[in-house]
Amino acid sequence: MALADLSNWDRRAFLGFLAASPLAGGLPDVARRLMAAQALTQQGTPPNSVQRGLITEVEKAVDVFDFEAVAQSKLPPAHWGYLATGVDGEATLRANRDGFARLGLRARRLVDVSQVDTTSTLLGQALDHPVFVCPTSSNRAFHPDGELAVARAAKAKKHLQMLSTVATLSIEDAIAARGEPVWFQFYPPRDWDMAKKMIVRAEAAGSPVVLLTVDLNAGSNRSTMERGRQMDTRNCVACHDGTPAGQVRRKPMFDGIGAAGVPYSDPAMTWEIIKRLRDTVKMKVVVKGIVTREDTELALRHGVDGVYVSNHGGRADDGGIGTIGALPEVVAAARGRVPVFMDSGVRRGSDVVKALGLGASAVGIGRAYLWGLAAFGQAGVERVLDLLRAETLIALRHVGATKASGVPRSAVVTLPVAPPNGRA
What we know:
With 424 residues, this protein is an alpha/beta fold. It contains 16 helices and twelve strands.
């Protein structure tokens, strides 16, 4: 029997068997990983259920995962590898999703949830919704409009946007497209004079908050990204050549500060940098990449305005702790003195409500909107935001919450066994 003659269910099961078997020894590792991923994503799906197809119109998306396969089909191997990668064995990448799957929401009944308020204020900025657009780098690797499309989508759907140091759009252009302040995620160049020029520029452009990112200073080994790059047959020297100068060639935040050859991660960085930032700009300072009680206490001792729980979407360390698992101890250590927000692994509205119930003030998405961007540009990002809004509203109603900022801790419980479907 030919593979094409098998049902979707049987075909995926066969691919999963093949990917795990000695027969796959001659295949590239990325191909084996992709086959295994296809099988894993369907675990727990009964044979007679409707399987996912490759959508051709943005309106056909039922949840954010519908954009994933479209994005992969459109992107070259190196760009998909960059988007999909974790580090090392990708334990943390998996843990980000598994952590949400291990949590449940306790439904409450006969509560008037006809009106649900999703607004709040975060560090002085009014939010229409608790979901924000995370800072992600190099968005033009996924769509020609890059961060410009993201900013326009954030404006259309009224979501807070954060911009990466290594974005392919300047802070000035992002704020102009967004029509409101955009928060600036900061990788300080190792030369402080250059770093100072960059952060002063961001403040002058109107960014009210700097997100000092601290989770990549030790480096990261992005295996899937490297394998994707090895599979890519294109000549990419025009965009980047693997040198520090090449890495920032199309990163406008580095223009004019002489930082083209200076690395922007620093293993020598210490908590002293908080004071340097305070002495340089009046922006509110948030430390991004915190996952422990100890570092939360240190951050507060050094006077930060907020703590951002993140493991860079599983792209920093391979310690295997998801951010939703780290969130409670960070919230407990913060003790309400500063807001705590988080990202990594958020794919559904129920994920958002779980994080809110565990104490997050706001919840960020990264890969989810990048899938939408790669698949359909601005329209794809807008559809991702719409889907998450709709799912979040439903989840809030089910737990009896009439305010997004009022999800009780009792709404979130640990499940005895995590669901088998990794997309739960």
